[in-house]
Amino acid sequence: MTLPIDATLIAARNDAEQRAVRSDYAHLGEQLERRGIQIDQVREQVARFGVAIPSWGVGTGGTRFARFPGQGEPRHVFDKLQDCGVIQQLARATPTVSLHIPWDKCSDWGELREAAGFHGLGFDAINSNTFSDQPGQAHSYKFGSLSHTDAATRAQAVEHNLECIEIGQQIGSKALTVWVGDGSNFPGQQHFRRAFDRYLESARQIYAALPGDWRMMLEHKICEPAFYSTVIQDWGSSLMAAQLLGPKAQCLVDLGHHAPNVNIELILARLLSADKLAGFHFNDSKYGDDDLDAGSVSPYRLFLVFNELVAAAKEGLAFDPAYMLDQSHNVTDPIESLMTSAIQVQRSYAQALLVDRAALDAAQEANDALTATHLLKQAFQTDVTPLLQRVRLDGGGAIDPVATYRASGYRNRVAQTRPAAAGGGGGIV
Amino acid sequence: MTLPIDATLIAARNDAEQRAVRSDYAHLGEQLERRGIQIDQVREQVARFGVAIPSWGVGTGGTRFARFPGQGEPRHVFDKLQDCGVIQQLARATPTVSLHIPWDKCSDWGELREAAGFHGLGFDAINSNTFSDQPGQAHSYKFGSLSHTDAATRAQAVEHNLECIEIGQQIGSKALTVWVGDGSNFPGQQHFRRAFDRYLESARQIYAALPGDWRMMLEHKICEPAFYSTVIQDWGSSLMAAQLLGPKAQCLVDLGHHAPNVNIELILARLLSADKLAGFHFNDSKYGDDDLDAGSVSPYRLFLVFNELVAAAKEGLAFDPAYMLDQSHNVTDPIESLMTSAIQVQRSYAQALLVDRAALDAAQEANDALTATHLLKQAFQTDVTPLLQRVRLDGGGAIDPVATYRASGYRNRVAQTRPAAAGGGGGIV
Amino acid sequence: MTLPIDATLIAARNDAEQRAVRSDYAHLGEQLERRGIQIDQVREQVARFGVAIPSWGVGTGGTRFARFPGQGEPRHVFDKLQDCGVIQQLARATPTVSLHIPWDKCSDWGELREAAGFHGLGFDAINSNTFSDQPGQAHSYKFGSLSHTDAATRAQAVEHNLECIEIGQQIGSKALTVWVGDGSNFPGQQHFRRAFDRYLESARQIYAALPGDWRMMLEHKICEPAFYSTVIQDWGSSLMAAQLLGPKAQCLVDLGHHAPNVNIELILARLLSADKLAGFHFNDSKYGDDDLDAGSVSPYRLFLVFNELVAAAKEGLAFDPAYMLDQSHNVTDPIESLMTSAIQVQRSYAQALLVDRAALDAAQEANDALTATHLLKQAFQTDVTPLLQRVRLDGGGAIDPVATYRASGYRNRVAQTRPAAAGGGGGIV
Amino acid sequence: MTLPIDATLIAARNDAEQRAVRSDYAHLGEQLERRGIQIDQVREQVARFGVAIPSWGVGTGGTRFARFPGQGEPRHVFDKLQDCGVIQQLARATPTVSLHIPWDKCSDWGELREAAGFHGLGFDAINSNTFSDQPGQAHSYKFGSLSHTDAATRAQAVEHNLECIEIGQQIGSKALTVWVGDGSNFPGQQHFRRAFDRYLESARQIYAALPGDWRMMLEHKICEPAFYSTVIQDWGSSLMAAQLLGPKAQCLVDLGHHAPNVNIELILARLLSADKLAGFHFNDSKYGDDDLDAGSVSPYRLFLVFNELVAAAKEGLAFDPAYMLDQSHNVTDPIESLMTSAIQVQRSYAQALLVDRAALDAAQEANDALTATHLLKQAFQTDVTPLLQRVRLDGGGAIDPVATYRASGYRNRVAQTRPAAAGGGGGIV
């Protein structure tokens, strides 16, 4: 058995570009040296950085209007793992995979762990699903799950989360991510306070079942699929729930789950102050929960998120954020989008490492707004491409992952064994 | 063959409530009399008002996350027509149905027309669909339809619209509504000006095929399914296209297709000034294109829309707006939601008829903002429920359509012949 | 000394309208009786309801672009109090006034208390101001106040708040409202966590000085005057601060201080769950913190706020919300706007009292969304005008306060002693 | 008489940095060479680029809450011109100034022209003001100007614009920018269609007075100072007005005048298609019309604007956009902010020149969204700092304008002759 992309192809393509990369890297090193930064130290930090791939991300996404599948869509969790293997082999920034139950259930978790190991992948947080019904399910989630008015439905949803924890333990996960679609579409449909109380009651049962070294990551969302109210609508509700549940409960921030104009980097600063930041679901958005590729529309915002994280780490705050890409790839090859997005996230992290923190502290103290913001811009404007290329090169990946992937013919190859997926419209307008 | 709801049930329920309705109506008449309004004249105008039902509206809607069907979902256009018949029989405010091709295609349009006639229904604008692929379709709409870069795909989309016109002619429609999902998810994906030019080129071919007494209604939308840009993103682009196409092309306003905070009643005023207002797709929204029930979240906004329309009509502007409900019923019985929504739209129209236009003109001229806005509020705060009840009662409908519908057992009855629909998740996150 | 509006004028105008009011009231009573509601009980509850007037509200407001003063602008707190007296005399819904320091400082608080007593007015929460500089002030608030990087500036801001408490004690206030303009205009300008810590440190000193029966009301705001970040940007940060300060600290909700689309009634439900709801600053908005008249754009939203409050009160939750109007009257006579707005708030409260709570509970339990939302709409659509008119009539006020005020010639009268105010542009674009 | 900043200071500071700049420039040249781009050609294009400074921009701005002036605020148009001279001397990207009447009126326009010439400055579009009242003005603009219900007020506003044209002719302007604050704060306050008609009637009179080689630039704005509706609320209304006025009327896009989430680069593409793009007012915003420094929050959006402009120019479209900074500098030294912002705008233009247009065309044709967006990102991620530094160096400016400005002591120097400006609060909440 061999890794999905031929190593000699990677090497050949890298050879053609190496010289330019090394020249660019050297010149970037000089520039950073002038600012008092050792490029190799930054490179080492960046090399240790990773962001998880959601198993569902390797399939083509869609909207309520339609889904247009691509070639060679993964059929099951093993196919998905293989696609994740390609991403990690070429881009070297995604060492873990995050599963979604029930879709990723399999009959032999040991076999799955072994397959992951072969690709050099581990498992990150496990995700439960109580926002859609599965065939044969006793109680429907049409009107909610953890917060449903009916006790049996809540119990079923709790039970599903407990199963997720069990599965997670078998594959080495250390966290359960809980996002529910619960909410309402009409004023009056739901009793806001009672729904929140029921959510808490259910969440407490899940919390009680968490292994000692696990976290429970609560994910808020302002709307969709519920369009008038949601039970955990923003970080305030998420914080309240996490406080009431206990120290292992923390708040997960998905970049697309907020009201328009909201300052997300400020929210994460508050969650850090409250010692309740669980981590991030990265994506980008222009209008709502668009689930576009991370940094594809607002790269500076992504940088500002990492600027807060790097500052907090440097100041010695104890926190351990989970990073995952959570995107819907509707018009691109998911493998290409995930490689590109992982590198974009990595880029933001690298740039944040370049901020002159001492000078920034001084400018902030002196209320020299222009200098303070310039220091951030200086870091953001720095083209760290050669640094990221070197990290991949050193790690055995591809200098240009997308071009290498395209050259490999992987997608056509798997399309021969993976049958064409059904697309078409949801018929839902 | 009989109408779907037993007439004796309707009569019996009406009898129990008639006395209260007549007393309330009489008192409302007294109140309006004091304001110089003859209630019977208003009632007659309201009785002539109607809003179309979209054929797809009688099925349970969903989101990209899941769809939770109800009992007795309609199987085909004849089932849909029967459900529309129930709505019209009880609520008397929805004399027409708007079809969606290809979903509503049938082998015998004459039979369909006859079925509609039996329910006292006509056909409103016909809607094309080029936002999702159908089985066996030659060219995919994944990357657009009327504005696709590929000429063959554009030709296919044009051809589909021509077929819609032909169908429309067979059932008595007088308008084609064109909404496309075309757009992009990434900066750079689409050449904005060229895509617009291609859209126009395709639209011109459709326009050329319009019968003499038809209209082409262009529908704009800020986003979804495309999440970075759309080809007809707002009323400005829609106006440009309609101007370039010709007098039969007009702009359709869906209340949920705008950026946050946008003043929709002002947009319709501008379209009236430009003589380009085609009509409306009614629904309500809190966050985006939520497709909630009309007036369920922002009833005053719906009133303000009708305030503009009534004012323009009174001033003698020549325009003939098409009205349709365009909602996604995810958590209610679609028949109940459509009856309630039609009555809400009718209510807004009735209230707008009560505005003292002469006093409003005077207050506007004098910049007496407080009086001007009070005149609108006075009309909006008037409880026109008895007036609407009388319109239904006089028309043979039900004073309380939802209660009567529930008492009729219609949903259970059709569930016996209509098989349970598959729900489940889109698996799309 | 007599009340500002001639009692015989009020009586004469009321006489002309009384008969219609009593007829309407009687018929409304019949309608409510059919729903199992005793109108007189509702009327008594409504008669006990009051909302505070902010002293600054009786002056004409403006924007950064310009201010266009009206005739007879109040010169000082005694003029303001007289205008508040007019409002309360005619509309009977605003028994208290909320002062703003330093603008309302006067040399004899006893005299002010006496003047208020003459008008039947008391004093509500007192408001500090550290968002603008005063002549002769030692340290500028250009870069913040309670969260300023400079300790001396923070101390000055704390000191000002302590003075406000002292003044409040002299006039009978029981709460201090703290809103700060602190924040930043550039990414990087402010260290988010440190600024929050500094705010807390200052707030603790103010909290420590609160009399035993006082509350400290923290007001959040997403932006303006700071346009990139604010220190208390949303209810989440406000909650964190209130929790850290102690039980006397609570969160004040201004309806215009949120991101677009945010569900405010849901926020207040969460604050009720957390036992941290201080109260409201009422106004309306279409685009941002527009400070438009309460309920002038979104009357249903205002109703939904009261629906939550009435439900919570009925369920026995212990809370005591402060209500204040906080509006900017740029194009109307402030007295007219404040009377109208107070009545609009009162209307929303009255309508919320009409909701059939038992039926709503049942519909919510059964996930009958359509019935649940209909129950709210039924209450909202009820025209409670005659009930509100009766409350004013019984309380010695005017059936039609605006018409009576206009007939009184009050504005022209005071314009003779109050000199014309300077307007003009801020020169700020 | 000498230029405001000592040339020897500039030279000395440049000398210290030149070597690094030349090294970075050379390496950037190598990188671009690999992409087939000649850096010197790009540099020449960038050197020809300029953006106008608004005369009001050199004064400290404020909000309705407060204004906190800095030291040495300019007293009159000659002081303003001197500050603009500093900006142009150091940053070499702002060759023109845009005046605002009546604030910039002076008794001798020839003297002003001469002063401008001394600083190497010309005059760009002239701006009228009918959104605030001036002392002694006959008719108030409280309720509108060009669209006022009163004919005399409209005539006064037209007259003011005609005077602006006359002044503009004396100083060499070739365009009049018309922005009005006209609109309404309450539903019903204004008759939408009539107000638009009155605006057009007034605008036609101004248009008729335009010299043959002038343009009339119409500026739209969604809200503020009017908070319910505005007369030219968006580009759609602006387009309608420009079409009705004639070919010399075009639409000006201020980046902060749109609804949340709106795609501005798409709007400008539409205006290009309609041959109606006048130009831009550059600034940045997070929440509304925040008037933050250009590119300070969303640098990628600014790049995407220039990407459209560069593409259109390359495709041979005939258009001549006017560029102006329109910002409110509340917490920075306006000279520093304007230099930085001009360079940020210049940076975006330079980056847009680097996009591989042929490859982008191909990717767009092939619907290769990932490649297309990567091509934009590649250009945006390129650090063009050394190129911009070289442009300044070659033009006689400063490599680091802000540091040089600070070293010059200019602000302290002018503070000695310019008296401290009054700040304080607007008293408007």
UniProtKB/TrEMBL annotation, chains A, B, C, D:
Family annotation (PANTHER family): L-RHAMNOSE ISOMERASE
Gene symbol of the encoding locus: rhaI
NCBIfam families reported for this sequence: L_rham_iso_rhiz
Entries under InterPro entries matching the protein: L-rhamnose_isomerase (IPR050337), L_rhamnose_iso (IPR013451), Xyl_isomerase-like_sf (IPR036237)
SUPFAM superfamilies the record matches: Xylose isomerase-like
UniProt GO MF annotations: isomerase activity
Keywords: Isomerase, Manganese, Metal-binding
Keyword hit for Manganese: yes
Keyword Isomerase (UniProt): yes
The name this protein goes by in its record: L-rhamnose catabolism isomerase
